[in-house]
Amino acid sequence: MAVVSPVWESVLEQTKSAQDKNVDPLLWAVQLSSSLSSAGISLPSIHLAHLLVSHICWDNHVPITWKFLEKAMTVNFVPPMLALALLSTRVIPNRKFHPAAYRLYMELLRRHVFSFKCQINGPNYQKIMKSIDDVLHLSQIFGVQVSEPGLLLVKFVFSIVRQLLDASLDDEGLLELTPEKRSIWPTVAQDMEIYNADNFNEKSKEHHDVLHKGNTVMAIEIIGEFLQNKLTSRILFLAWRNMPSHWGNFIQQLRVLAAKSMALKNAKHITPEALLNLTSDVHKFVSRLCKTISQQEFNADLGSRSLTTSSQCHGTSPSARWLPIDLFLEDAMDGSQVAATGAVESLTGLVKALQAVNGTTWHDTFLGLWIAALRLVQRERDISEGPVPRLDTCLCMLLSITPLVVANIVEEESEFIDESDCSSINQTKEKQALGKCRQGLSSSLQMLGDYEALLTPPQPVRSVANQAAAKAVMFVSGLTVGNGYYECMSINDMPVNCSGNMRHLIVEACIARNLLDTSAYVWPGYVNACATIPRNVPVQVTGWSSLMKGSPLTPLLANALIATPASSLAEIEKIYEIATKGSDDEKMSAASILCGASLVRGWNIQEHTILFIASLLSPPLPADYSGSESHLISYGPFFNILLVGISPVDCVQIFSLHGLVPLLAGTLMPLCEVFGSTSPNVSWTLPTGEELTSHAVFSNAFTLLLRLWRFNHPPLENVMGDAAPVGSQLTPEYLLLVRNSKVSAFGKSLKDRLKLKRMSKNLNISLELIFMDSFPNLKTWYRQHQECIASTLSGLVQGTTVHQIVDALLNMMFRKISIGSQSLTSTTSASGAEDVSMRLKVPAWDILEGAPYVLDAALTACAHGKLSPRDLATGLKDLADFLPATLATIVSYLSAEVTRGIWKPVFMNGTDWPSPSANLFMVEQQIKKIIAATGVDVPSLPIGGSSPAMLPLPLAALVSLTITYKLDKASERFIVLIGPALSSLAESCPWPCMPIIASLWAQKVKRWSDFLVFSASRTVFHHSGDAVVQLLRSCFTSTLGLSPSTIYNNGGVGALLGHGFGSHFSGGMSAVAPGILYLGVHRSVRNIMFLTEEILSLLMSSVRDIGRSGLSREKLDKLKTAKFGLRYRQVSLGAATTRVRLAASLGASLVWLSGGLNLVQLLIKETLPSWFLSAHTLDQDGGEPEGLVAMLGGYALAYFVVLCGTFAWGVDSASPASKRRQKVLGAHLEFLVSAIDGKISLSCDYATWRAYVTGFVSLMVGCAQKWVLDINVDVLKRLSNGLRQWNEEELAIALLGLGGVEASAAAAELIIEIGSEVIA
Prior knowledge:
Number of strands: 4
Oligomer: single chain
GO biological process, one term: regulation of phenylpropanoid metabolic process
Protein name: REDUCED EPIDERMAL FLUORESCENCE 4
Transmembrane segments: 1142-1164, 1188-1211
Organism: Hibiscus trionum (Flower of an hour)
Strand content: under 5%
Keywords: Membrane, Transmembrane, Transmembrane helix
């Protein structure tokens, strides 16, 4: 720095004079102070720092000048940080020629760099930091242009450590081994000729070398001190968070030093291992802090270690922490709900959220996931039979969805998904983390063998489990056979004493997805050591192996492949190739194979099979096609096989679980448009001799499409005034919106790129966007469907095409009545059957357009006595048989007419209409028994006497129609469309409509009786909000073991979900667990908004009950005076805290499952603030000790809200829902800050409020760090100030440290201000 001012010339002369006279540094300082004061120079002085450092380097490099500089730094004449920055640029590059200066620099560093507080509070702080930035070029080097002094402080500390590290590596010739090969700092002097022997004050070359080597050791030790010192280590934590790439370089260099440095190995005060551990401590700062806060806040550290012995009887077993997974899996099994988003994505987010919030290892997390999925399957073992089979869907969840979830988690870690937390350079540590993740999977599956009761395979898959076990036995024995051997293995071929279980199937699923290798076969206890191998292993096998070896696809082979699932992607790709390139017969066989066992139980390749089917349903336009009609027409028989094959309930649910419903909808809409616009004259003769028409293909595609959205729910939701249940927005437009969104974004995210790696390269799926406007006929029908729901039909204009079709349909349906000259309408003619048949040779869309008028005429005729109920049911059946797609119109029209309430009820007397009296009383008694444990009253049913059972006319017509269907495979795909609609409509009608319908169907299908009664029992909750609240209360009391009922004494998952429903005891139905009932009810709750208030109220009530049962004042007072009283008091509090967490976990799960993202956001934006503003007292009778229950209430709320948020938004930013987090979370934090600042007056208990705020922030800091980045920096600063007022300094530091670059500046200054004496 050039000094031209006379004042500074005077100061320099004064310093030279004192130097020559060897004046005492203190006297020099006094004289200097007087001179600067007279000249009006304020201290500390930036100019003085430049002057003194320039004076020393290098013409006056003598001991006295260093003493002058040290005194100036001590008395704050010069800014110590600036002086150190200036020295680093001069001394470090010249350390080899001036080792003494390097030693003195490091001594000054040790004395002054750890004392920042006086410097940041001193005058000219911002100017000083700006000057340091100019000297060291910090903003340029680190690439962070924010000029906040706090951030410059972080850069300064980090730069000092980096310079010492680079210098140490350079001294030992190790810099070339680092990734960058050089230092970003000047470590070698540029002008070498100025250094000669005269410049050195060292006495000898030997002394020079000793000092040089000692300096290297000292520099390394100082690096360790920076990492170890509580103050500087936390500042370095901020560098790690905000400069990840530079931190990654730093860690790599440090590892090179630890591995290669002789100086470090010879150091007395630090070892290579200790140095690396110190860097790990910097990373663990937040998690360590969160744990410390939790222990301080709730004093539950000892209790948490004793939970396994102190609280097993209250639902707090280790598996209870994974209760949300059990609830999610069970809820996903609802056959009446087809989800637009897949279970893989939702479950992946849920598992990651629980792992973060619970703070568990991946071993415990994966173990909890497998156990929950196994419990789901076990609940289906003795389930009562019903129209909705669930076993294959549950097996899909266990053996396909769950392995895909695990694969997502493992692969995300391997790809370093979070770039802000894991730099690309810091790979070694991340690979170790990845190893831990895979190791956690492996160890969890090994431990899974201890849960024998959960591993018993259901009867239908017992042989498959045995084959999986036999495969492992063969491998261990060294016998190599192909997969085909296991396909045709008979009981005689099976190794002796080889019994498989569900773990064998899980391991096979993981091996197939490259999550495990065959080393799993040699796990202890995995195979029976006594198993013996059969002597004769067949050489030739049939099935898939035969196909892969080139055998032609004969009918015999095709039948074998239909019954046996493919075991590899290559096998299913072979079938796909045949389906696209084979002969017509081969294509038909390939379509049947794809929809066979490979779709339902080909768990290892299930998602590939689904994609192949979707691809085959949308073949591309051939390049040489020149026909006038759509190219899709020629695929009619092929499409029909696929459509019929994927129509069963469990197949549609499998599509839903894999998240491919939107894709399937996008393939079905073109088929509906084309085949619905084609005359039935277009037909094909099948190999069986049966004729297939375009109407049949259309009906199969159309009815399947309708099942992909909540087609059977709209009437009440559009006509009634109550809020619509969640999910009713699932419309065709919504499905296309989801489909287009996924297609347009596919391949851009890491998640999609990982999917692409797994997908078959042979797959051909169109990525073009699809809109409803592309399907004018479908759009017209949908508009008419909505109009029919919203209002009555307008007049039918005579002479139009629609009128002619209506006339022909009525003649076809009621030809006997018409021929008898009793016309249903004034327009019905007596044309012959042949004329009617010819008039109905029209496209299906035209028939659907006239169908509502036909139904209106028929229903009116029945109401006026012109048409008997029996003839009405028969006519409706004839209409549905003629064009099954009209079932959609029948359902929507009759449902809408029920809601309008204009039709008189009819007596179900057994004469005109079927009678339920034979078993209605039994149904009533069983309903009461099912829900007895919930405490809900069941309305009495009017049976016999003067009050016969009655139903609204349209509902009676609909149930009569359903009863006419035979329960065969051909009718199944139509019953599964109309059945849920009938159930939904009956549940919404006044009591006892649903029990009447259940009685009628139980008479028709006795084996479904239990299922029907269970469905009817749920209606009780649809008609009473109080009953829903009582059911929710039962969920809490049963889970927490707070119910006096013996059935719920132990609490936990078993008490909440039980064993499904069915005749588990002799003598009829058993009581159904409340969780099963609620999951069957919540989608039909009219006003879900009240659920947040009720669940919140029940949560806090549960906290009070837990406190009263385990933390009574008398009990704890006795423990205080007893031996080991403090220990047992902590155990009691720890057990209570764990039960509170379980209650919060249950509450969060119920909110999320009941209303999804919208209900969670309503809870956080409105319900929770209102609760805090209202008066609530948890210690009403004063029986609880010193506000412990109030504190537990705040903790429960914090855990509850964070779990709700993580379920809905995720802990990271991977899900689309996370984009909506910023606004809601920001508003909530603004509320917290305003209340802390006193701008909002709260009415809740202060202990509850404080526990909530500190608990919420600590959970957010420790478990959901991405959330902090969504919050405005000003709000973070205000919140941290509020936390400081509560002496929560550490939490305030962590919050600011995670808030991004700008917030880190405030965090650094807060770290300095608090000082190292506060930091434990």
